Amino acid sequence: MIRHVVIFKTKEDAPLLEFKKRIENLKNFIPEIKHIEVGVDIRYDKNPSDFCVITEVENIKDLDIYAKHPKHLEVIEFIKPYVIERRVVDYNV
Questions:
Q1: Where does the Stress-response A/B barrel domain start and stop, copy by copy (predicted)?
Q2: In the chain, how many domains are there?
Q3: Which of 29, 51, 63, 67 has CB atoms 3.0–4.6 Å from 71's, for a disulfide?
Q4: Separation CA 74–CA 80 (nearest Å)
Q5: 83: closest CA among 5, 3, 6?
Q6: Tens of pLDDT along the chain (93 residues)?
Q7: Three-state secondary structure string covering the chain
């Protein structure tokens, strides 16, 4: 199992709850997704990121399918204008 974690810092006007809804809805279109969740920051830390996406897939092949899936790319295009910074970690679970 591979866990794909992406952390975003966004512009102030970013519609974070809409991001959450659209990203979590990807599980209805991409069968390779075993688990997906979006966490919106609660502003506890002094230097927070704004939200993170945690996705689990079975293997690298499935991660590649997820990454290139048209529905995933559609969500990326919606989010992209708001993104200031993006960080990724992929690891075996």
A1: 2-91
A2: 1
A3: 29
A4: 10
A5: 6
A6: 999 999 999 999 999 999 999 999 999 999 999 999 999 999 999 989 999 999 999 999 999 999 999 999 999 999 999 999 999 999 999
A7: CEEEEEEEEECCCCCHHHHHHHHHHHHHCCCCEEEEEEEECCCCCCCCCCEEEEEEECCHHHHHHHHHCHHHHHHHHHHHHHEEEEEEEEEEC
Does residue 49 belong to any structural domain of this protein? no
Measured over the CA atoms of residue 52, residue 58, residue 64 and residue 66, the dihedral's sign is negative
Answer yes or no: is 17 within a domain.
Answer: no
Q: Is residue 16 part of a domain?
A: no
64, part of any domain: yes
